Amino acid sequence: MEIHLPNSAFLGNIDPFLKSFRADRPGELKITANKKWISVHPAVLCMVASLGLIVPKGNVSCEKFEARSKHYFERMGLFNFLGVDSGIDVVEHEPAGRFIPITQIKSSENLSSFLTDMVPLLHLEQQHAETLRYIVSELVRNVLEHAETEHGAILAAQYYPKSNTIRIGIADTGMGIRTSLGRSYSTDTNLEALRLALMPGVTGTTRREGGSEQNAGAGLFFIKSIARVNGDYFMIYSGDAMYKLLPKQGARPGLRADPFQDRHTAHEGLPEWRGTLVGIDIKLDSTEKFSQLLSLIRNTYAEAIRERRRARYKKPKFT
Amino acid sequence: MTTISIFALAGGFAENKDIAREIRLKSILPALEKRDMVTLDFAGVTSTTQSFVHALISDVIRKYGSDVLERIEFKGCGENVREIISIVADYMQHAD
Questions:
Q1: Distance from first CA to last CA of chain A, Å, rounded?
Q2: CB A17 within 8 A of CB A9
Q3: pLDDT in tens, A260-299
Q4: Which residues 6+ apart lie within 8 Å of B9 measured at CB?
Q5: What is the distance between the alpha carbons of residues A134 and A282, in angstroms, rounded to a whole number?
Q6: What does the alpha-carbon distance between residue A170 and residue A146 come to, in Å, rounded to a whole number?
Q7: DSSP 8-state code for residue A188
């Protein structure tokens, strides 16, 4: 596999980066980077770190970073994670600001303690902390329950003061959305699986309306809704498909159950990502009051269920 | 009357579904079996997740039907906790 860290890869311009990733030769990993300046979304860091976990030790080759921003990657723990010596010394006068370094979460207990420690790292107000904890809890639990990977979830986050935004990435190298959903829903493509997974009430554990006793199939719908209402980016990449919710929604307010009805981009035929990668941005200026958001979700969810029931309803045929 | 403190078992951010499952299996369902009323006390819980509440009450609603909501009281809920409980109660009453 080969991955190149470009000059810039955030959710708005991540597409070329994903297309450039080479997924062949899965037993080895070669990492190269822009020589002048590298500025990337935490989801990109999670992706690289995850690849490092599935390649046998000693088969990771990482060229020496020359970019002026190289210290950031040391601070985020990337080289440590990959088991490579960066040759970079981080000194105190090179602050990375408010961030969560690349972190591996492998169990429910790990997650609970991480959620407690996470908020002070980002110095968040209560209102923002609540949204962030919600997102991280639901996404990481999804990985722990459905991905079936010994490596768990890889997570990183960074606060960007200029845009007053928190960017979060979560990656896993498990079975991916299509296989996970395939236990209850058959789909022809990875993109179709992503679309289903983002709809309320769709879970791989059962086709029953209301879900199973442990899963409702609502987690991703909630996360996409949080991004939708706040006008933020949300991206999910699994298999060879990627769905990206775009922040400017024009004159169509409200939530929609079908993610394809939101303003978005979607790609198929990307290099195969064995697992799932999620990236989300949370603009702290515009964070909708969480209770108002929940109220919107409630209405959309109920309408989606009613619609599915109507679609299933069959009239008797009289001849 | 059986009163269960969610804060004591799941903390201020009630999100651990394994704990929710334990509460459902070991406390809520046995109390309902005995025809007891159940109070789920959320005092001290500042927030929760849909997944937690789903693991806590969805199977109870499925087993006993929506009438069971007359035998369960949700106490000490803040605005967000209240909304999340309402979402789960809503969709479970439309469930199969």
A1: 62
A2: yes
A3: 999 999 999 999 999 999 999 998 876 667 888 888 898 8
A4: B19, B22, B23
A5: 12
A6: 14
A7: S
Give the ipTM: 0.93
Domain membership of residue A116 (yes or no) is yes
Amino acid at A5: L
Per the structure, the count of domains in chain B is 1
Q: Classify residue A14: in a domain, yes or no.
A: no
Chain A residues closer than 8 Å to B12 by CB: none
Do residues A102 and A111 touch, judged by C-beta distance below 8 A?
Answer: no
Q: The domain containing residue B62 runs over which residues?
A: 2-93
A144: CATH: 3.30.565.10
Q: Of B19, B23, B49, which to mutate for an interface test with A (greatest number of A Cβ within 10 Å)?
A: B49
Residue type, A44: V
Cα–Cα distance, A125 to A130 (Å, whole number): 9
pLDDT, tens digit, 9 for 90 and up, residues B60-91: 999 999 999 999 999 999 999 999 999 999 99
| Contacting residues for A17 by C-beta, under 8 A, at least 6 apart | A4, A6, A9, A40, A44
Residue spans of alpha helices (H) in chain A: 15-20, 42-54, 70-75, 78-82, 108-122, 126-142, 176-181, 190-197, 219-230, 290-312
CB contact under 8 A, A137 and B87: no
- Measured between CA atoms, the residue of chain B closest to residue A133 is B13
- Which DSSP symbol is given to A189? S
How many domains are contained in chain A? Answer: 1
Question: Does B83 contact A294 at a Cβ distance shorter than 8 Å?
Answer: yes
Kindly tell me the sign of the dihedral angle through the C-alpha atoms of A119, A123, A129, A133: negative
Residue A207 located in a structural domain: yes
> Which residues fall within 8 angstroms of residue A59, CB to CB, at 6 or more apart?
A27, A28, A29
Q: Are A222 and B50 in contact (CB under 8 A)?
A: yes
CB-based contact B47 A133, cutoff 8 Å: yes
Write down the pLDDT at residue A96: 57
Domain extent for A236: 97-312
Whole-structure pTM value? 0.94
Write out the two tokens for A310.
């109507």
List b or e across A146-183, with b for residues whose CB sees 16 or more CB atoms inside 10 angstroms.
bbebebbbbbbbbbbeeeebbbbbbbbbbbbbbbbbee
Across chain A, what does the average pLDDT equal?
90
Report the side by side order of strands in the sheet with A2-5: A2-5, A29-33, A60-62
Structural domain includes residue A242: yes
B51 touching A (Cβ < 8 Å): yes
